[in-house]
Amino acid sequence: MDFKKSYITFLTAAAIMLPITAQALTITETDAFTSGDNKAALQTSTGLIWLDFGVTNNKSFNETIAQLDTTYRGWRLPTHSEIYSLFSELFAESRYKTLGTNQSEWYGAGVTAKMYINDVVDVLGANVVEDKGNGFEYSYSLGWYLSDTNKLNYAMIYDDGYNYNNYQAARICCADTDYAEYYDYDYANYKDAQFSTLLVKDNSITVPEPSSAILLSLGLLGLGTIRYRLNK
Fold first, then answer.
1. Domain range holding 116?
2. Rounded to 5 degrees, what are φ and ψ at 103?
3. pTM of the predicted model as reported, rounded to 2 decimal places
């Protein structure tokens, strides 16, 4: 009986710890325009709905924002802090470095990083996805937005698609540098399959995530129930 109790206790504890320690996405697929289109992602912590990368590609930044009252009615440009919050949540467990004022990059290598990037892209979409013919995919997601000082910036998720040891990264451009001015190019009016414009809309219902404390409490309750039944 003691062995049985110990074994059940071990299995229950393992079941409790698994959802706490495993890395989980903080976004879920949702609809953007019509029921079942799955062209948006719900950020569960904030309730914000993000339009997929790739929906607005092949349109320039200026062309997209000119359609905010028509094609994209109800959507808006995200703020820098909203983008930073999304990327900080998604890539919290990756290696991190600061590249400059308000410019950040999350990066990783190996099978875990590549598979996780793929999971993110499956929900957030991509501007370009190419089969490299080696069992891997190259994916490139770059979205324009305006910084808090009204400067053209971008957020990007990138996977080189070659092997487990190469480069996978997510980057937010420096908020106090205008990308178009820096490269002396009119990116605001440039259209290409690799570039899109980030759009977001507010959702009145915030979906809370279960906290570790709640999960632990439920697990302890289960342990107590099992112990009570075994001792009867």
1. 26-231
2. -110, 130
3. 0.73
